[in-house]
């Protein structure tokens, strides 16, 4: 193993954004809850059952926005028209609900700002100093703005985010396609790439894509689940893998 906590065969690192590099997973979860609770309260009235952290972890975390809406609604036995990506946030469609969530997310980001995990930034700098290539792989369509907000855009050679995935018609996590695209853009094979993820869907993507190493980042006490879904190792902070203090 190298001083970075990775096999010596690894030449590229593919990082998820939310929950791995930045703390935006918390504001994402809050925006999802605000949107779904309002929708469910209007729909179900006295039978309203709120959106929970478990719902977020099981159905939404790490998935493209529309996929998350669709998965959670299916779990509640709710069917809505698909709509189109341009649907207004008030539309009663899958895309409309997703756009409402994004509107709430952006409002929260503007109000409270975005923070990066300092250990992750130190690890990124160490990875770059060691000559490894880097990519950020996120289902977020706000990825570039978030990276700029934490002054981390220049730490990545490649960005595969929600906008890029839509243009290239890449299916999102738990499919491995976005990570595979990042490796291809970096000019490396999956087997020589390491995936860094905090979501179970990301673990599934890392396992099914044949990547050389999969690092689970445990921010919420789900280390066992991360291992069960394919993590080769689990850390609470990337600095544990090896980064200067």
TrEMBL record:
It comes from Streptomyces uncialis. Gene3D superfamilies: HAD superfamily/HAD-like (3.40.50.1000), Putative phosphatase, domain 2 (1.10.150.240). It is an enzyme of class 5 (isomerase). It catalyses: beta-D-glucose 1-phosphate = beta-D-glucose 6-phosphate. InterPro entries: B-phosphoglucomutase_hydrolase (IPR010976), Beta-PGM-like (IPR051600), HAD-like_sf (IPR036412), HAD-SF_hydro_IA (IPR006439), HAD_sf (IPR023214), PGP-like_dom2 (IPR023198). Keywords: Carbohydrate metabolism, Isomerase, Magnesium, Metal-binding, Phosphoprotein. One of its GO terms (molecular function) is metal ion binding. The keyword Transferase does not apply. The lineage of its organism: Bacteria, Bacillati, Actinomycetota, Actinomycetes, Kitasatosporales. It comes from the Bacteria. Its cofactor is Mg(2+). Belongs to the HAD-like hydrolase superfamily. CbbY/CbbZ/Gph/YieH family. Its EC number is 5.4.2.6. This is Beta-phosphoglucomutase.
